[in-house]
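This follows on from our talk about sequence and fold. Can you supply me with one protein entry, sequence and fold together? Could you add the entry underneath, on a fresh line?
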Amino acid sequence: VEVLNAGVTGYTSTETFINFYLRVLNLSPDMVIFYQARNDVFPQAFNGYVPDFQHYRQSDYSFANTNYLHRHLFRVSHLFLGLATRGDGNFGWSTRDENPNYGTVRFENKPTSSELVANLSNDQRLVVYKNNIESIVRLARQHGGIEVVLSTYAFRKEKYESGVIERDEAILSAIAAQIEKQNEIVRQITEDHSLVLVDTARELAPYLDDYLVDDCHFNDQGQQARAALIFDHIEQRLPKKLPD
């Protein structure tokens, strides 16, 4: 079995769908496994919501002119480069502007805590998430019957940290509830389309304190447990080895 990680840090389901259409399909996989929810919470929570997420992501963002003066100084002083880029940045250097996850975000639309709770109460903002997954399923079936496996998303609100929306006790329950809404969408899609479901959120729930390093990222032990869980669900669906 050959496994390729086609996931991209910070991607929403919209960007994952585009990635699947433009890149993953060309690899002609037998099976794709979808695991995503948390990154979609941010565009769902931001003010000025539009379905193409232009309120959240600047599609025309350019890194060519970020930290422009610093880059010129770096050419003549490696010492200044080291000092300026240490930690979160010094002498006006912006690490955020150089990071695709954050530099492209329209932080002018970032909600207050009360706005976030109100925005996430609008379930219409979940439609794009559902449509993106179902579009992946349809494309997969149209291109050689690629099997799609969906997984719910494990989340531990007590350890929430993010560079997009800072931690505030007032928002933790709303974010956790939004991720669970998306998990319910995943469960429903698997039922509607007769797909394999790996219910990571429920099946690994008793072990998340040991398996997660923060609110959603697995440590080595957790990755091994998650891989074993996925294998248990897909083993019978894997292509069989041909006789020698």
